[in-house]
């Protein structure tokens, strides 16, 4: 083994990869993981028990679960490709929350039952609208590190 192989990347001037799941990223991983389980559980139970009652709402909750799961995976995986993918997913999530939130406020009768993103996530303490903003801030910071 040569000296350059033993020398840490920081000492040789190489840029070390930023770990997305450390520091505040760990909190994001936790929240996204919890929301993955919550949205998936909710949508699965609702689709099994009473899909015909509100199919749009239940499918949107399942889509939210998939987005949350993918962001969780990307944050845990780390790396530049995962960071960019998670950033795009957070933007899509925010767009979904804003569209569904506005739709449910403007036309409440459009949904026979609430989704995770209904009323901008009011049923989840507005975390669904706060989470993608926080995620995008963290992911943009990670790019600069």
TrEMBL record:
<keyword id="KW-1133">Transmembrane helix</keyword>
<feature type="transmembrane region" description="Helical">
    <location>
        <begin position="121"/>
        <end position="139"/>
    </location>
</feature>
<keyword id="KW-0812">Transmembrane</keyword>
<feature type="transmembrane region" description="Helical">
    <location>
        <begin position="55"/>
        <end position="76"/>
    </location>
</feature>
<feature type="transmembrane region" description="Helical">
    <location>
        <begin position="27"/>
        <end position="49"/>
    </location>
</feature>
<keyword id="KW-0472">Membrane</keyword>
<protein>
    <recommendedName>
        <fullName>Integral membrane protein</fullName>
    </recommendedName>
</protein>
<feature type="transmembrane region" description="Helical">
    <location>
        <begin position="85"/>
        <end position="106"/>
    </location>
</feature>
